[in-house]
Each structure stands twice: as structure tokens, then as C-alpha cells.
Amino acid sequence: MSDKSSHNTNLMWGGRFSSQQDNIMETINSSIEIDHRMAMQDIEGSLVHVKMLQFKKIIPTKICNNIIKGLKVIQDDVIKGKFIYDRKFEDIHMNIEKKLHDIIGDDAGYIHTARSRNDQVVTDFKMWIRDSTQDLISKITKNMKTFLDTADANFNILMPGYTHLQTAQPVTFGHHILAYVEMFERDKERFTEAKKRLNECPLGSAALAGTSFPIDRFFTSERLGFDKPMSNSIDAVSDRDFALDFLSASAICATHLSRFAEELVIWASDGFDFIEISDSFSTGSSIMPQKRNPDAAELIRAKVANITGSLFSLFTILKGLPLAYSKDLQEDKELVFRAYDNLSLMLDVMNGMMAGIIIKKDNLIRAAASRFITSTDLADYLVSKYNYSFRKSHHIVGKLVIKAENLDCDLKDLKLSEFRKIDPNIDENVYKILSIQNSVNIRTSYGGTSPSEVKKRIKEWKKKLK
Length: 466
Ligand code: ARG
Known about the structure:
The protein is mostly helical. Helices cover 61% and strands 5% of the residues. It folds into three domains: 22-113, Fumarase/aspartase (N-terminal domain) (Fumarase C, Chain B, domain 1); 118-203 and 232-366, Up-down Bundle (Fumarase C, Chain A, domain 2), CATH 1.20.200; 368-453, Ribonucleotide Reductase Protein R1, domain 1 (Orthogonal Bundle). The chain has helices at residues 23-29, 32-35, 39-55, 61-79, 92-104, 117-153, 173-198, 217-223, 233-238, 241-268, 295-318, 332-355, 361-368, 375-386, 390-406, 416-422, 429-433, 436-441, 451-465, and strands at residues 158-163, 166-172, 200-201, 228-229, 275-276, 358-359. A two-stranded antiparallel sheet has the order 1-2. A two-stranded parallel ribbon has the order 3-4. Strands 5-6 form a two-stranded antiparallel ribbon.
């Protein structure tokens, strides 16, 4: 180290500096508390980079081997949790390079030939997101299987279907649960597409302009599991679309979980009493001994905010940011890591909660028999049997509903003579038409709620998820 740089703690870029960095500057500048999570990706990237440098005869074999030996020691330390991260060395890249210098001495200086932290960080970050995306896809699949089992076990159980959270038409419980399996499938597709799109390697773009060293970017790209090197070095160091893709897929998936969590909260409430969440996923109240609270579902409902928040934070960071690299981009990782941690937890908790959920079948069926729930069936029947216009039928049924309301009973409790006063054509068939079981049984349109259709969809999903 020169005299000058000895004033500055930074071994990597301290050459032109003659005084120490302010402590508060170190606080805002350092990212090691966050980006230490990319240690393994950083080492993997460096190992491949130096092998390429040696292969292209840019660095001597002896130095390359020395660097590899040193990096392996560091890798081992990281795995064993023995590596000590120091904020004086700013970020994960410089922490590892400093440690390499401690282990192998000045040969460590050759590692940064033909690269910059700008291409290094984005390569590490892409690899981290790639691994985490795969992990989330597995967790979504696990949830799909659990939801599918619940749907299968209750495929024909009747329940009220809602619009505006007002009782609308009877549906089957299996049908309702399968709606979430469909959502999860789209989530998986979004993550899969995002993973595919991110898989181009930025390494070798150096600071922004590429390098004059005769590097082989296809060598590094292939060995790091990318499909190809990115073809514009300025784009490569500035692009964070892949992080937006990840956050947006995460936000949508978390939104689905939040919607279902809200349904669980409603279903577990006294007014509904459709389900019981197991003890292992419920909490009690410190003051009201009778309470059993659906905290897990409520927290899933809330945690989505963290993820959509991260997505909008990154949009805000990127908006108006000129090409190429600016330090603003360092703020991207905290957002992505936080989103991943939250979504991963939400998926684990949802899966655990669903696996132990108790479905109160009798209560669902009782609620499905709620007053007037099959009014639409009667209107449809009048249309198909007597060729009435739908408006005319709708009007007739509306009148019947008023009549039943006045008599404080359901449509099915009206005498045939009462029906006939409103429309003399109505015959005894009306009672079958008004039955809730009949209502779901006849909804055999593709994707409809009839038990036979639901069973078909369950079969298809089972095959797909095997
Ligand atoms: N820690 C930095 C980041 O996360 C690494 C890149 C630093 N590059 C630079 N030119 N200062 O973005």
C-alpha cells in the first residue's frame, strides 16, 4: 500500500484519497449488512471469472490457482458462518476481495482484471434472484397441492357463493378453493417467465463500456448457468427490469394470498363459522379467555403491503435514473430481499394453516340454503320452459320474492297457488328448480360449479401437479 492510501482504510479504491472517510459517510455508503446475502453468488462469479482470465491467458495459471484456492477457503468460511463481514469494506464484493488479499497476498489484486463492481453486482444479484425464484416456485407448488387436497375432500360441499359479499348463488366448496389453485398457477408462470427473461449474463460489461482485455463472455455466461451474455454493456450494468419482474410477480402472488387470508378471517368469524383454524396457527387473547384469533391469516393479509411497497420503491428509484450505473442502484437489494423473505414466509404459513384447517361442512350447507339463493334458477327456468324474455322472468321472480318476504318465508315455502297468482304457467317443477343441490348440479358449463365439473378439474390438476 502506498503512503497516501494508508490514510484511507479502503484497500480497493483508496489510491487517490488522502484522508479518512467520515463515519456517517461510511454508514450511508456501506451495504454489507444487506448484500452479504449474495456471498455465495459473488464467490461463484469470481471463480468462473478467474478461470476465464486464465483460459484467455490474461492472468498466469499460477495466480489463477492461488486465487481459486483462496476463494475456496472463503467459500468454506461463508458456509460455516465463520466469515466476518466488515462495513469498512463497503459491500460483499470488497469484503471478499479484502479477505482474499489477507489469505493469498498481492495475487488477489489480479481478480478484478476486466471487471468492475458494476457488472459484478448485477451478475450476483441475478443469480440470487434466480435461486430465490426457484425456491418460491416450489413453495407455490406445495400450496397448490395442499389446496387441491382440500378441494378434493370437499368437492361437492355446498356453500353460498358471494358477489359484493352478499349471498349470490350456491356453489361447491371445491370450486371456490380451486379458484386459488388457478391463481397460483398463474403466479408460477409469472415467476417462470421472469426467471427465463433474467437469464442473460452481465459479467464482462465492466464499468459500462466493456473491456479491452480479450475476455470470453460466452465462457463465463455458460458456466454461471446463463443462456447468453447480455449484448449491450451499458444496458447490462443499468438494467434492473429483472428485479421489477421479480417484485411484480411477488406482489401479485402475495395479493392472492392476502385475498384468501381475508376469506379465512371472514369464514372463521362467529357470523360465518365456516372453518376452524387449528390451534397451531391461532392465537388467544390476553384478556378475553374465550378468544381464538386468526392472527396468521391477518398477518398474511397485511404482509402484502411490504411487497407492493418494495415494488413501488424500486419503480421510484429507477424513474428518471440516467444510464449507466449510479449508486442509487445499491438500494435495490434490500427491497428484493425483504419481498422474498415476506413472500416465502407467507407461503409457508398459508400452507401450514391450510393443511390443518377444519371445514365445518354442516354450517356451509346451512348457509347455502339461505333465502332466495336460487332465484336466478327460477328465472332461468321460466325462460327455457316458457320462452319468456329474461327481463320478464326476472320481473316475475322479483314479485315472488316480495310475496315471500311479506309472508316471511323462502320461495320454496310458497304454495303452488301463490306462485300461480303471479304467473299461472308455473307448475310443480318449481320446487325442484328451487333446490340448492339442483342449482349446482345443473351448472355443468365448462369451469362451472357442478360437482361433476369440479371433479374433472381436480383430476386434471392432480395429473398436472404429480
Ligand atoms: N455495492 C454496490 C451496489 O450494490 C456495488 C457496485 C458499486 N459500484 C460503484 N461504482 N460504486 O450497487
